[in-house]
Design a protein that fits this description.
The protein is an alpha+beta fold. It contains four helices and five strands. The structure holds tetrahydrodeoxyuridine (THU).
Length: 138
């Protein structure tokens, strides 16, 4: 895995926990926060739900979008926090499949994903065979 020092990982996890507090999740009551490190800066996102259920935005994709919108397309690491998930229910802490595919657009297989209370993963542990048309993550 590309190396991220412990202090940086801790800062990313702190940022993910903090932004989860801003989630708009009146339907699921499931707060999610994500923090992306890109270009030496931390970009954050939370889930944003809608009365029209299919319009919900995931925290990870909001954070990735913030980095891209700032012109930072080289993503270094991601942290995600799901404070409402039971600590021992690992699958409720991991990024969904759509978010994994979006990460694969920009990130190589060794991209580190830190899960609050759940250790760390390489992106290719989470999505071994992403769909590709030859973008930057290819
Ligand atoms: N959610 C995320 O923000 N990220 C994920 O990877 C999985 C799910 C959000 C979407 C919805 O607001 C809530 O969690 C419950 O699915």
């Amino acid at each position: 895995m590309s190396t991220i020092d412990d202090a940086t990982a801790a800062a990313l996890l702190d940022a993910a926990r903090e932004v989860a507090r801003h989630a708009h999740c009146p339907y699921s009551r499931f707060h999610v926060g994500a923090a992306v490190l890109a270009g030496g800066h931390i970009f954050t996102g939370c889930n944003v739900e809608n009365a029209s259920a299919g319009l919900a935005l995931c925290a990870e994709r909001v954070a990735v979008g913030a980095a891209i919108a700032a012109g930072e397309c080289e993503l270094t690491a991601l942290a995600v926090a799901c404070p409402d998930a039971p600590p021992d229910d690992r699958q409720k802490h991991l990024p969904c499949g759509a978010c994994r595919q979006v990460l694969a657009e920009f990130c190589a297989g060794d991209f580190p994903v830190f899960v609050d209370g759940g250790g760390s993963y390489r992106l290719d542990d989470l999505i071994p065979q992403p769909f590709r048309l030859g973008g930057p993550g290819a």
